[in-house]
Amino acid sequence: MYVEADGIYSGKLAQFADRIGSSPLTNNAEFKQILRDAGRKDPIMQAVQDAFFEKRYFEPAMDWADKNGFALPLSGLVIYDSFIHSGSILWLIRQRFAESPPSAGGREKVWTRDYVIERNKWLKSHHRPAVRKSSYRTEVLIRGIGRDNWDLSQLPIDANGIKVFPKV
Predict the structure, then answer these.
(1) CA gap 31, 149 in Å, rounded
(2) Cα separation of 10 and 167, whole Å?
(3) Which of 23, 92, 114, 160 is packed most tightly, with the most Cβ within 10 A?
(4) What whole-number distance in Å separates Cα of residue 120 and Cα of residue 122?
(5) Of 36, 25, 111, 40, whose CA–CA distance to 71 is shortest?
(6) What are residue 149's phi and psi, to 5 degrees?
(7) What is the mean pLDDT of residues 1-15?
(8) CA atoms within 13 A on the CB side of 52
């Protein structure tokens, strides 16, 4: 998407375009540096990333939330984070608690709280160390629930040491 958008680093990244998704580039220092530079210095890369996340994660997450009757911003954040991190609301976590989603007569705050607690337990007990380390995500959400910050109006939100404010 970035190469097609003709960003500042498109020419340098074009050499890698046909390898993305077909061969690992995680250890390619040149590729990673070009991506870092593009992300830091090129507004086109930032816009492409925003568009990608919107289409791949945010829209499907909000569709799922709407279909299941969720309306509170913190619930939306929980669902969006699950889609970003796990691709969906994982059934193996969902089956660990009894509360139904609001569309099936459940209580939204109870479902959201129970889901985040179970997801946190799952992350912390995962066999992969990198997944275990990502439990800070659910801990941020648990703090939001504990602060009764369902409308996300209590700012800033401390996300693993990063203070999050609304974008102006």
Answers:
(1) 40
(2) 27
(3) 114
(4) 5
(5) 111
(6) -95, 50
(7) 93
(8) 10
The DSSP result for the chain, as a single string, is -TTTTT-TTHHHHHTTTTTTTTS--TT-HHHHHHHHHHHHH-HHHHHHHHHHHIIIIIHHHHHHHHHTT---HHHHHHHHHHHHHHSS--HHHHTTS-PPPGGGT--HHHHHHHHHHHHHHHHHT-SSHHHHHTTHHHHHHHHHHHTT-TTS-S--EEETTEEE----
Q: Let me know: does 107 contact 99? Beta carbons within 8 Å.
A: yes
Q: Give yes or no for a contact between 87 and 80, defined as CB atoms under 8 angstroms apart.
A: no
d(CA 20, CA 25): 7
Residue at 85: amino acid letter: H
The pLDDT tens digits of the residues spanning 64-115 come to 999 999 999 999 999 999 999 999 999 999 999 999 999 999 999 999 999 9
Residue labelled with tokens 């193996």: 92
Q: Tokens for 133?
A: 């380390």
- The C-alpha angle 72, 92, 109, rounded to 5 degrees, equals 20
